[in-house]
Structure formats: C-alpha cells, structure tokens
Design a protein that fits this description.
Strand content: 15-25%
Structural class: alpha/beta
Mean pLDDT: 88
Order of helices and strands: HEEHEHEEEEHEEHHEEEHHHHH
Low-confidence stretches: 11-19
Distance between the termini: 36 Å
C-alpha cells in the first residue's frame, strides 16, 4: 500500500457468489487458485445518456429520454466475468471521492469481485466518461488523470486466466509473469493512435493465448478485408484469433489445431452498446475455461453481448445466468417445428439445455441508476 493508497474491506464475495451458477464446478479441485480471472486497469464512473434523436449539434441543447450511472472502464469486463460465475480479481485505483466509493461498493459488495489488490488513492479524483447513445452507436467524452499509485505492480496472483488490453508501445510486464506462471492470457486492443497498426508493436502479444478484435481492427492489422481470412492471418501470430463482425456474428481460428468456427449474431434492437465487447470477451473466456467447443464459446459470447445491449449502463448491463436462462426458455417455447424461424437458433444453442438447470433462479441485477446518493 505504497504512496498513501489504502485498501478497503475483504473480497466481498459472499452474497453475490452464492447466487451465481458456477460454470467451472465440474472441474474445480482443492488445489485450484482462488482466482479464475485476473485483470487490471482503470475504473471510470460512466454517465450514459440514451434516447437521443441524433448526435448533439454545436451551439444547441439536446435532451435525452434516459440516463444512467454505473462503474465503467475495466469494471465493464470485471462485472461481466463475475456475473457469469467466474471468481474475478481486479487490481485498480479508485478515486477518493463519492464516485470512487460508489464504484468500489458496487463492484465488491454488489458483484462479488475481489478487490483485495485494488487501492483508493487519497486526493485523486475518479475518471469520468459521458457516453451518448444514438442510432445504435455511441459517442464518448472522458476526463481523468493517471493514477499516482500504479496498480498490479506486485504482479498478478495465481489465476486460471488473465484478461489484458494491449496498447502499441506500452509494455505490461505482468502479462509475461502471468503466462510463465501458467495463466491463460486473453487479450484485446483498441484504436492505434500511431496509425501504424503493426502487431509487432503490441508488447505482450507473444505471451497471449487468445486475441480478440473486431473486424475493422483485424483488417487494419492484417491488411486483409475478409474477416475470416484476417482471423487466419492473426492465428499465425497468436494461438487463437477471434474476430467479431457486428451484425454478421463472429468467427475464430485456432492456429494450433486448424479448427475454425463461425456463429451468426443474435439480432436485437440495441439501447446502449457500451461494454458489449467486454461482455463478449467474458462469455468467450467462460466457455474456454469450461473446456467447451470453439463454436459454443462464440455462441455464448455473442448471446451475452446481445443481451447486454438491450440494457444501458456499461458494466451493469451485463447479463448473468438468470438472463441467459430466461432467453433460452423463450426460444424453446417459441420454436416449434423445423420450419420455425427460431429452429436454427434452438439447434445452435442446444448446449445451454445441458448447462442450465430447469429451475435457474432469477437474480435481481443492479442496473444503472439516474444519479447517485438518492435519499429516502
């Protein structure tokens, strides 16, 4: 706890953990690490405006029909993982303000995320992102300062897996340490501000087991337009390459076995796409750790992402097994006969019937709230 940073409480897993279906229950042993997934990054306070008719116009005022606040940034991924029953450990700096306190309480007590490696930094304010959703997309404005106390400096704890976000020219020593310790490394990336789009410029990629990118990122990194061909090219650099294709679904290539898979998207009317990529990653990590076939992993990832965009609020829009079970029950109820439009969906997601118990209990989820600190 160097630099005046302070930790709070314990791991806070109790209530949230008891409510979650455990997708790894059949393979857990007494010698397993306590952590299924480790990740580190910056927690933002997200403020989301929805129901805008169009993008704000310079010199005018726009009114939104909806508004929500929730933890954002790396909290999106951490929450999505925890809601799928994975034991999630997050190392992050939290602001010494009401926003930081709200984010900490929501993640630790509300979602059961282990924050024992996280710190509250005295005098440092929480980073904030304002997201405006319209026309199925979003525009974001953010403000914040780099935390004066680095998180994750001591290295990751023993974990089945880690999730990393790779940035050009920014080494993260913990990735190699985690890989050498036996953790599976799942990586994503974002926009390359240098414009070079060179895989060699992504430190840590050589230690990653899976690399998940969208179709535009895949095209830029490989100079190949077709997502499937781009995935094959990426699989020459990393064992497993996954490319998301928006409304066309997702594809993946396992460079070690030559296996490939493609799953169509579940088309929904999106309310807010904030955090959908993080939820996709969480679904894919869950299926991978559970040892599922490649196509089933893609299917769960696509389903959870589709469910998430029908809520707003980034981290708190992530679905859990209760929402997955409710969707599966609707499909089973509606899909009658081979000619029904949902028959292919029923067949594609048949693996859920073996995973989900018939009496999966509903779990009231925290959702984004309009503002913080309501007083009764």
């Amino acid at each position: 706890m160097s630099g005046g940073a302070s930790a709070k409480g314990g791991s806070g897993r109790g209530e949230a953990r008891r409510c979650a279906l455990d997708p790894l229950a059949a393979m857990r042993t007494a010698s397993d690490p306590a952590c299924d997934v480790y990740l580190t990054g910056t927690v933002f306070l997200d403020i989301i405006f929805t129901g805008l008719e169009s993008a704000p116009v310079r010199g005018t005022e726009s009114w939104a029909r909806g508004m929500g606040s929730s933890p954002g940034g790396v909290a999106n991924m951490a929450t999505a993982l925890a809601r799928l029953g994975l034991r999630t450990c997050l190392a992050a700096a939290f602001g010494d303000d009401m926003y930081g306190e709200y984010c900490w309480e929501t993640l630790e007590r509300g979602e059961g995320i282990d924050l024992s490696l996280s710190r509250t930094v005295p005098g440092w304010h929480s980073p904030v992102t304002v997201s405006m959703a319209y026309d199925g997309e979003r525009t974001m404005i953010s403000h914040g300062h780099e935390a004066p106390v680095p998180t994750g400096a001591a290295g990751p704890p023993p974990a089945r897996s880690c999730v990393a976000s790779l940035s050009p020219g920014r080494p993260q020593e913990w990735i190699e340490k985690a890989a050498r310790a036996g953790s599976l490394i799942f990586a994503s990336t974002g926009w390359d501000p240098t414009g070079a789009w060179e895989l060699a410029a992504l430190p840590g990629l050589a230690h990653c087991d899976a690399f998940l990118v969208n179709a535009d990122e895949a095209r830029r990194y490989t100079r190949i337009d077709a997502p499937h061909d781009a995935a094959r090219a990426l699989a020459e650099h990393v064992p497993l390459a996954v490319v998301t294709m928006g409304a066309e679904g997702a594809c993946a290539v396992d460079g070690r076995t030559g296996e490939s898979a493609e799953v169509p998207a579940i088309l929904v009317e999106p309310l807010d796409t904030t955090g959908a990529g993080d939820v996709f990653m969480a679904g894919f990590v869950t299926g991978t750790l559970a040892g599922w076939p490649l196509a089933d992993r893609l299917a769960l990832a696509g389903l959870t992402a589709a469910l998430s965009v029908q809520e707003f609020g980034g981290s708190l829009s992530a679905p859990g097994w209760g929402e997955v079970a409710a969707w599966w029950q609707r499909v089973r109820t509606l899909a009658h006969g081979d000619g029904h439009p949902l028959a292919p969906t029923l067949e594609r997601y048949a693996f859920l019937g073996e995973l989900l118990p018939d009496d999966t209990p509903p779990w009231p989820r925290r959702r984004a709230v309009p503002t913080l600190g309501f007083r009764g």
